[in-house]
């Protein structure tokens, strides 16, 4: 009887598979799991203006679609060792939703290329990743937490530490630098005091 109780306890500790789980996007009953979407925000930082970003795009209005039935712009290739590869958040197949705050959901391919090749050091991307199944989304190794909107505060969340300095901070720093570089007043005061005596 004690042995039966131990077996029952072990069975309760083992995971139970019910017909709602998904493996590789297919439910146990053989049907496809529902599509889900994950929105990702990342900022690529060029070492110098004009440097490539390390990925290619495909699709967009007026261009051959990357994905059947969709005019969206997608990441079609990631260059090994490039900025996008080193960033680690972008994956082939991610849909480009916004570039530096410019909505790309209905954009033509050329408009996206223009945004990506502008002479800017910081390139902020909002991407949408599609996956099947009710379980957790497949994340790239360094994906940020799920963010739900195209708001600037979302994609600026991944900016470099010194990117969010207020103008007041910069003025204070400049004033401090100016004070440190200015000649001190002590020799001038001593000179004035000697003249008065």
Detailed description of the structure:
It comes from Zeugodacus cucurbitae. Residues 41-131 form the PDZ domain. GO terms for molecular function: protein kinase binding. This protein has 197 residues and is of the alpha+beta class. It has a domain at 35-152: Pdz3 Domain, CATH 2.30.42.10. 28% of the residues lie in helices and 22% in strands. It has six helices and eight strands; from the N terminus they run H-E-E-E-E-E-H-E-E-H-E-H-H-H. It has helices at residues 2-13, 83-87, 109-117, 152-155, 167-181, 186-196, and strands at 22-23, 26-27, 35-45, 55-59, 73-78, 95-99, 102-103, 122-132. The longest helix is centred in the C-terminal third of the chain and has 15 residues, at 167-181.
Summarize the structure.
With 197 residues, this protein is an alpha+beta fold. The protein has six helices and eight strands; from the N terminus they run αβββββαββαβααα. This is Protein lap4.
Which fold name is given in CATH as the topology of the domain at 35-152? Pdz3 Domain
- Provide the helix percentage: 25-40%
Instruction: Give the CATH class of the domain at 35-152.
Output: Mainly Beta
Order of helices and strands: HEEEEEHEEHEHHH
Number of strands: 8
Name the CATH homologous superfamily of the domain at 35-152: PDZ domain
